[in-house]
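Each field is set out underneath.
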Amino acid sequence: MNMDSDNLFKKGSQYSRKDVGWILLPDTGRPAGGDWDTGYVRIDNKLIIFMNIGVSGTTGHDFDNYYDDTNKTIVWYGKPRSNSQQPTFQKLLSGEYTPYFFARWDNKNPNFTYLGIGKIVSFKDGIKTKDGNENIVDTIELKLTISDSEFIIPNINPEISPESKNNKEVKSSFALEKHLEDFIISNWGITSLSEKYDIYESEGKLAQQFHTRSGPIDILALSKDKKEFLVIELKKGRASDVVVGQITRYMGDIMKNLANDQQNVRGIIIALEDDQNLKDSIYAMSNIEFMRYELKFELKK
């Protein structure tokens, strides 16, 4: 998952506003209406930005947000009548607020793809746009960069190349955890996990990015004898002990809301590397283990 500094969201994965609300406000979820149904909402020092690229929003606003593939920059426009002197943008430009960007290319899809945390490159006030009544008003334009965005924006649901799809060898490390996730899903049958587990199915779909109130589980599997759920958390590079808290929250959700009294719940963290803190954290946990993938794709204990 590349989930930025605080492991909240997974780049390249899709979230509804409701999903984001449960992750940021686990006790209550998002409130109805208000800023949550507009372009951005603030939670503590986080500015959660929902943007449309190339399509109008459900409110009828049609901003010229776009991605410049040449310069790897994103151009994003504030709400009508926004400017750099307003408190929200002053704190955003000063770095007091951290901007989390979610985008969509299809306004019929209620979900947004998480791009990552943006770094503001420049801004400009006085850009002309239309408000909800078709009046011409000013707004602010911001140019920003988001690491790995070139792997996400051209293809919201990236596919592994055909030559790799049924091949046990992966020539290089994965650009995003989403790519690693897609590869494992597509090649489940060649992994050692498939000997005991099948990918769980919910409502006729494989449990990839399986929804919980603590966020989406990368992959949820169920043992062939139906006695054990397996929560799989992926990291494309090195995994630290931060992931232990994350996977235990997911496991707790499955225990409370899906597993019955006769079913166990286990967890596996899969990454290219681990560190000593992670090893120490899971040493005393009999229900969580670490597996590493190799570039010649195999899972090793």
Notes: Residues 1-6, 155-172 have pLDDT under 50 and may be disordered. Residues 72 and 83 are 24 Å apart (CA to CA). The two ends are 20 Å apart (CA to CA).
